Amino acid sequence: MERVILARHAQSVFNVRGVLNGDPSIPGGLTAEGRAQARRLGERLREERIELCVTTEFERTRETADIALADRDVPRLVVPELGDPPNGDLELRPYAELARWRLANGPDVPLPGLDRTERHYFETVARGFGLLAERPEPTILAILHGYVIAWIASSVGASASVRHAEEVPLTAPELLEGLDVVRGDVFRRWSWETSGRPLLFGVGEPG
Fold first, then answer.
1. For residue 7, which of 45, 36, 33, 35 has the smallest C-alpha distance?
2. Is 183 a residue whose pLDDT tops 50?
């Protein structure tokens, strides 16, 4: 991989409800507005060379890709390691509850109902991007989640303003400009230890 185009999935039913969803087995796709956003994403990316589209297991990323690339023959790859984090007992609860919990407990205490911490989660994300970095396709479109994109954007120093999930626009390939196209070598060396950025826990919107 030489470059990756990062786009957040379009508006989902969970975004509208303001609740957490870190379990991909729970159904929940895009809203009508989300489907319109995905079509606009497809228009924005029409002239981009894309050899592979990566999504997560979550319906909202796969549906965004289906709509955005409806008229293009682009191979797909699901990378579970890049999905939203599990929420334990806070699944389908308002995001504000997670925000309060994270601010009080930090990244190294597992959420209630889990045995893994936020640090473990981002170590998993790093492995996921490592898989992408070794792919043979030169340009990859990755339709992911705001939490992951915000962390990566701040970690690689892509945009000083993109520090929290709620600042990542839904389906915003213009974020690519702030990232100056994310290069494969960034993901080959990125990890929790090398990110050198403040944690994002406690801030943002779900999804």
1. 45
2. yes
